[in-house]
Fold this protein.
Amino acid sequence: MGIALQLLFTGLGVGSIYALVALGFVLIYRATNVVNFAQGDFAMLGAFAMVVLCIDLGWPYWLGIVLTVVAMALFGVLFNLGVYYPLRHRSFLPVIISTIGASILLENGVLAAYGPRPQSLPGIFTNQGFSVGPVFFDSQYLSILAVTVVAVALQYLFFERTLLGKKMQAVSQDKEMASLLGIPVALLIMLTFVYSATLGGLAGILVAPILFVSVQMGASIALKAFAASIIGGFGDVTGAIVGGLALGVIETFGAAYVSVPYKDGFAFLVLFVFLLFRPQGIFGERVAEKA
Amino acid sequence: MPLLELDRLVATYGKVEALRAVSMHVEAGEIVALLGANGAGKSTTMRAISGLVGPASGSIRFDGRDIGALGPEAIVRLGVAHVPEGRRIFPGLTVKENILLGGSNRRAVRRAALEADMERMFGIFPELRPFADALGWTLSGGQQQMVAIARGLMSRPKLLLLDEPSLGLAPLVVQQVFRVIAEIRQQGTTVLLVEQNANMALGIADRGYVLEAGRLVIAGTPADLRDNEEVRAAYLGGRAQAQ
Amino acid sequence: MSADARPASPTRRVAGAVVFVVAAAVTIAIPLVQPMPAYSLNLLMQASTYAIAVFGLTIVLGYTGQINLAQAAFFGLGAYSVALGTTTLALPFWVALALGIVLAAVAGAALGLTTLRLGGHYLAMVTISFQTILSLVLTNWIAVTRGPDGISGIKRPAVFGYSFDGSGAYLALCIASLWLVGFLVWRLGRSRLGRRMQAVRDNELAAGVVGVDTYRTKVAAFTLSAVLGGFGGGLFAGGFRYISPDQFSFAESVVFLTMALLGGVRSPFGTALGTALLILLPEWLRFLKVVYLAVYGAAVILIMVFMPEGVWGFVAALVRRVRGPSMETAVPVPVLPLTKETAQGDGTVLLSVRGISKHFGGLKAVDAVDLEVRRNGVHALIGPNGSGKSTLLNVLSGLYVSSGGEIALAGATIGALPPHERAARGLGRTFQNIRLFTAMSVLDNVVVGAERPGNLIDGGHGAHALALAALGFVGLADRAHRAVGSLSYGHQRRVEIARALAGNPTLLLLDEPGAGLNHAEKEELVTLLTRLKGHGLTILIIDHDMNLVEKVADHITVLNFGRRIADGAPGEVLRHPDVIAAYLGQVNARAAA
């Protein structure tokens, strides 16, 4: 029982990372109908930024985090302008392919700049964690869960309580009507990209001390985040979060009880099953969202 | 000087030339009806005025200035509100939220002011109040039309473009909608009304224009147009070979 | 393949064949005769085997428009089959290769059958998942695949005692295979199946309505793509004699995709060019090696933005523009055989619609409508905006499933049939917002219509002749080889009608054929419709232009609020007070009946 609880805790922690990345990905999809294959690389960039700032330059963690978040926001602007904006009127295939291209560019750009050796970022916390009964609550995992909860809560408040959040929802439901009301559509789409990039970067910052920071880390997280959003219900924000958490837990339990080397495969097995029997995911596609 | 003036406007819908040299005007304080069968170009006219479609040639002047090159966000800020065909309520937002967003064109406006205006809207459409927190997609056609008009009015427009408000609505509901339109004019907003239902529109309009295949074919007062064979022919054919 | 593909004159065709044979012979002979450094041999072996796999993408993505991000997985299946087959299982090379191809085919078909109904990004996800799982299995199922250590000592084939052990000989084998596969892929693009694939890519909805079984076509494309992946992989294994799992990862699938896109995914020339560029160029730019992968990525984005048809497509478009529009040579146009239906006897009921309803949630778009269309005449369906006409037409075509009621065509119930099977029963249709296959030529668009299942034509030439005849009937035979997108709107309309006519329809459904036409074009349409009527064709037409309707219709049915409110001869219906009230509105408020 104790082991199961421990695995649950770890699984939720891992799942939170997937949830954060899936969230960013779903938001971009809802606003622009684009499937962003480079979403995971936002996490990779965030992690590498931390390595550069805190290890190579030796700056304190808090400074590194702040600068990384700012840098990722700016990167979101660049990404919007370079990858989405020129193709915004084209069909979905060129855009998907363009984001794949962006992913290659980012991964190999970092590879060229930094070399292939994986880096590691030492833990942020001096206190490793604490035990409650049989379960050891690792500080880093606790911080991941805490940040995810706060981020999701803030996002909920933003979208549900502020007018700007409502405007962004309007843009994703009917762009043309939104522009007829005077809502600055292009600006809000830019904001969506900025927010998604920041979320991705945040995921990278959080996960960096746990995994090896490598050029491929983004791709694997991204694939699982995509799987999570399909399992949760494509395009559904709650679904992305639930799907991410569920996937993290399934994967962790699978690694422990079934097989470690195939750990990465569980996500896709579950995805297959869903696509065969319930392609609309847990929460399904919302009624008449996109006219 | 007319509030809105179209001069030999030519506009396309995709590859098709939907409007061929249309000239018309709307004076401040009027309700003008734009009539014609489906496909005649009425919606294209609206879309050209509100900036969704750029004119291929000819000009559109609002309040004296040429707006042909402007986009929808700029035009709504000048005081033109377009309530498009099919209502297009945001399905995932509530009635309140839909209405509040109608004020998005107003710069530097406090939320409290918007909420006050929203209250005024519930005053004009009291039957919406019980549904204030209902999501857009759950509303009936008539309710959606009310919300769409309220949303349009929130922008405090000088000119309200209403595209086929009666579409898909039962006759009794249509009556209600048209009562509201008349009231809107009473409050000082100019209305350009596109309608397939000619008689209903002529019931409240001061003047009307009839489009057929992208051209303006008849213009006049309701007295001129009602029970006019020409108008009937524009909708139902039966006219001898012309042009 | 490309639109504006002029028919090659006999001399051009012979010249092309000669060039092809000579080029193939030369490139195959060189490695056999001329000793080459091992480095060059390896490079060319990689290029040729990769190109075979990338041809698979030409089929599935270029021709059919479906995304496949697992090509490296199929490549890996072929490679591992040859590797394990010739080492562990001690099978002859050809047997191992055949096994690999079969394995890839089965995997491709299985993936396709289960997910091609979903399409779009779902397909992308599934192919990525399959790719990832396969990579994991290759790396971790050490007992079978030897894991990350890979498999070495892969054997090469022998034929009748002639051994391909020598690198030169093996390279010649690869190049020969490349030419063969390239030729077959090129031929596929011009075949019936190839046309169906392109129809699916350009407008899947219209393809179904015109008689293409879109699901089966997509599965076929996907399976063929997997087969070529497996074939390339098998040859690859024999070439390098050592393989390891990291050569068949998602990254390689992305590389294949980039090669296809760079060259121009719609044509085998393009994909071959792209493969060559991406394998050979970096070698020549080796000093950029560290950065060139990043440049790949930037290149993909730039290609999508500026050159979506790839290098080959860009060049081809340039050439086309320089050459100017094709001068059509006068070809004798056959007569369109439309008269066969008149023998059936005037006036009997052809289409019987009873109590058809279509509900969207609470909205009754069509409410228990009865309709009878009699043979040899034009029946018009009219009604104000929102009255349910287009919905009814979509129910008749099979694009919507009805919420109740029956439809019978020539006595047989068709209500449960999907669109392509209704086309097979003789239901033809055009669309309000013209749905042509934009990347194909005018003639090819109509040929797809002629090739609908159940149409009585003799062989490939029969379809072309029939298509030309249909084009001749609508007056566009002289533009048969133009790109369909270059025609005026009115002419595109006529091409759509020709496409439907080429299918020898029993009943032709025309959805607002007059929409967007100017006065002169409408007059031409009326003339065309009158001629069709004269030949005995049965037509059901929706249109808003009452002048047009009055000129061509023998019978009119009027809908309002989803219900039928009038039905009869044009003269009476258009003066009927209920109909006038429906269109012009009621002066006094009366509750709906």
